[in-house]
Each structure stands twice: as structure tokens, then as C-alpha cells.
Write a structure and sequence with these properties.
Aspartate Aminotransferase, domain 1; 2 domains; binds pyridoxal-5'-phosphate; alpha/beta; four-stranded antiparallel β-sheet
């Protein structure tokens, strides 16, 4: 695109695409299903190997479809580079490896992270001698005290925590990381570049599960790592030596998804605000967690760091009655999909105690505030009245189901 703009909605549709292919230019980047590439002369191949000439040699090192997706997201994030991976977990694994490679082999992590990220730190890095200390990134004094004690090589936090939706002040965490010489990695899956561009706040590395909002249609898996030039050699070297690459097919789908990211994200955020407001009126819902509620502890941080009126598209709530009631609620949903993902066009509901945080001991879960009645909603792009109607009817029906089951038990049937 020749036109100069910094508008995300425009960049998402044009960035990465329309590279000239011989005599013509494809409107959208095709799927290059090839493992290797060759040139008229070996001299040219040598130049591509040496980064003296643009091109590709082998798809583990780079592939035109994958590069187009990487260029698209790099532009949206204001990054110098992006490296796409096969999943969000592959991106997190590679980012942590990169953060530790030339640094102290210790980590400070947010105390609430996606369950598999915590498992990666505890069950994969720890056996290699990498100790992780955990702290609340929304309590800056306590977080810094942990950093001082641990002197970590890298720090990892999420831009909106899962499932309690706390929002750390990334600019202040970046300041702490910088003062103590640690590389700061932020999993920005829940915010996307529509809500936040963490590299501009001083964060070193951003990762996304592209499986979620970026692709947005529940039809592909992917991850992406983004950074500034100083981290590129390490991350690119790890891409070549470890090979966690995204496939051209998945990159094609993810790129297609990103073109509508700002449309979807804005609609989903606005729907989430309406859903959160309505759920607060339900007597069976004991507490609603939504960063856009003025009584949310991180409301001011969101107002300071996010675009006006956007607070993310996730809403969590505590349903009175615990596990039995939550399971009855999930079974009563008529439209919202009770599946283990988020960020898709359709609304989705998840029970953290059974899925994303099932590996945590019940006591640990309770200590983190993840109770037996906690439900996490990923609000989709449907009409808000349908989402609200479905959730409210499922809350009401779940009460009847639980009451009936209690009556049956009493009567021994
Ligand atoms: C915040 C967050 N980060 C990372 C991941 C892992 O992503 P993937 O499933 O693409 O590996 C998830 C998955 O749910 C997630 O919620």
C-alpha cells in the first residue's frame, strides 16, 4: 500500500499483502505450500542465506505466506519483527527461552497466568534448574520486591489476567524490568493491538495466542512473537534451531482473520460491557468481574492505557451454588458455546476449575480467587440481546435443574 497511515483498521486490511509476483500482484497472499526455494544461480542463494538479498531458502527459516502474516501483525503492534509459531504455547516457550539464553536463569511471573503457561514454568523450565517466583503484577510494590529478591533474567505477565481479568500497568512493570535488567515478556492475547501496543510502553517481547482474537473464527491454531531489533537475532536463531514454525495454511487463515480484527474487537468489547451490566442485575450472580466497571480495581489503569470505551471482551462471574450449578448452567446454554477457547466470533463459556485451571490444587485456586462458582465468558459478535438472553435463561434454568436434583435426592429417586 502506497498510502501512509497509522490507522489500525486500514493497516490490518493491507499490511503484509500484495507483494509483486513476477508480472502480476495477487490481491491476497497465496498459500505457499513448499518446504524449499531455489534460485537461478547459487550465488543468489548464497546472498539470500547471508541476508544480502530478499528471499526464502527453507520454510523453517521463513515462508512467504507466514512472512505476510508476520508483517501484518508487526505493523499493527509497532514491532520491528514478528515470528509466527504453531501455537500460542510455542510462542511463549520460545520467548521465555530467548529471555533466559544470555541472562540469569530465573523468572518472575504473574501469580495468575493461563494454566499451561504456569505448567510450562513449573514442569518444563524448573526441572532444568530455572526457578520461578510468583507475584501479583497489580501490586507494584510487592511485584518489585519479588524482582529485587529473584534478580530474574526475564519477567512474564499477561495484559489481562485469565480468568479474573486483572489489568497490570504494563508501563510501570516495564520500568521495574528495565531498572533490574530483566527482559519483560507480555502475553497480550486478551488485549490484541486494538487495545494495547505493549512495545510502546517499554515491554521487550509481546506474544499472542493467534488461535484467539487474531484469527478469531475458531478454525486455526497459531502464535506470534513480536519485538524490537535488539531481540530479533536471538528469536530468529531459536526459530531456526527449534523449528516451532506456523504453517503456511494456518498463517493464511490467521491473516484473513486479522483483517477484521478491529471490527470484531470493538463490537466484542461493546457487547461485553452490555453483558457485564446486565449480569450485575441477576440475583443468582454474586459478583461480576469486568475491567470496565468503575468499581473494578484496575478501572483507572484501563482508562489510562486502553482506547476510550474499550475494556476487553471477557466477562467473568461467580454463580451462586458452586460446581453443580455451573455445570447445569453450561448444559442449559442454547447459543453460547461451552468450549475451551476464547476470542472467536461466537460467544463462549468456560468453567476455569474444570478446564483452564484444572491442574491447580483446589486450595491454590481458592487462594487466587478462582472459586467453584466462577464462569468465564468470551463475548462474541452476536447481537447483544441474544447473548444476554441466552446467559440469563441458562442462569435461571440451572437453578431449576439444581433444585430438582436436590428434591430427587431427598426423595431417594
Ligand atoms: C492467555 C493465553 N495465552 C496462551 C494460550 C495458549 O495458546 P494456544 O492454545 O494457541 O497454544 C492461551 C490458550 O488458551 C491463553 O488463553
Amino acid at each position: 500500500m502506497k498510502r501512509k497511515t497509522d490507522k489500525q483498521a486500514t493497516l490490518a486490511v493491507h499490511a503484509g499483502d500484495r507483494k509483486k509476483l513476477g508480472e502480476f500482484t495477487p490481491t491476497t497472499t497465496p498459500i505457499y505450500a513448499t518446504s524449499s526455494f531455489f534460485y537461478e544461480s547459487s550465488e543468489d542463494l548464497e546472498k539470500v542465506f547471508n541476508d544480502e538479498k530478499e528471499g526464502n531458502v527453507y520454510s523453517r527459516y521463513g515462508n512467504p505466506t507466514v512472512s505476510a502474516f508476520e508483517d501484518q501483525v508487526a505493523v499493527l503492534e509497532g514491532a520491528d519483527y514478528a515470528v509466527a509459531t504453531a501455537s500460542g504455547m510455542a510462542a511463549i516457550h520460545m520467548a521465555v527461552l530467548g529471555g533466559l539464553l544470555d541472562r540469569r536463569k530465573s523468572i518472575v511471573a504473574a501469580d495468575v497466568l493461563y494454566g499451561q503457561t504456569t505448567a510450562l514454568l513449573q514442569k518444563v523450565f524448573e526441572p532444568f534448574g530455572v526457578e520461578t517466583r510468583y507475584a501479583d503484577p497489580c501490586d507494584l510494590a510487592a511485584f518489585e520486591a519479588t524482582v529485587v529478591k529473584a534478580q530474574p533474567g526475564c519477567i512474564i505477565v499477561e495484559s489481562i489476567s485469565n480468568p479474573l481479568l486483572r489489568v497490570p500497568a504494563l508501563d510501570k512493570i516495564a520500568d521495574i524490568a528495565q531498572r533490574h535488567g530483566a527482559q519483560l515478556i507480555v502475553d497480550a492475547t486478551f488485549t490484541t493491538p486494538v487495545l494495547s501496543r505493549p512495545l510502546e510502553l517499554g515491554v521487550d517481547i509481546v506474544v499472542h495466542s493467534a488461535t484467539k482474537y487474531l484469527s478469531g473464527h475458531g478454525d486455526t491454531m497459531g502464535g506470534i512473537i513480536l519485538g524490537r531489533q535488539d531481540t530479533y537475532p536471538t528469536i530468529n536463531y531459536l526459530r531456526k534451531t527449534i523449528g516451532p514454525n506456523a504453517s503456511p495454511f494456518d498463517s493464511y487463515l490467521a491473516m484473513r482473520g486479522v483483517k477484521t480484527l478491529s471490527l470484531r474487537m470493538e463490537k466484542q468489547c461493546r457487547n461485553a460491557a452490555l453483558v457485564a451490566r446486565q449480569l450485575a442485575e441477576c440475583s443468582a450472580i454474586e459478583r461480576v468481574y469486568f475491567p470496565g466497571n468503575p468499581d473494578h480495581p484496575d478501572y483507572e489503569t484501563c482508562v489510562r492505557l486502553f482506547p476510550e470505551g474499550l475494556f476487553g471482551a471477557m466477562v467473568s462471574f461467580d454463580l451462586a451454588g458452586g460446581r453443580e450449578r455451573v455445570l447445569a448452567f453450561l448444559d442449559a446454554l442454547e447459543m453460547t458455546v461451552p468450549a475451551t477457547s476464547l476470542g472467536d466470533v461466537q460467544s463462549m463459556a468456560l468453567y476455569p476449575a474444570m478446564s483452564s485451571h484444572r491442574d491447580l490444587a483446589p486450595k491454590h485456586r481458592q487462594r487466587l480467587g478462582i472459586g467453584d462458582g466462577l464462569v468465564r465468558l468470551s463475548v462474541g459478535i452476536e447481537d447483544a440481546s441474544d447473548i444476554i438472553g441466552d446467559i440469563v435463561q441458562a442462569v435461571e434454568r440451572s437453578e431449576t435443574v439444581v433444585a430438582q436434583s436436590a428434591t430427587d435426592q431427598r426423595s431417594g429417586s
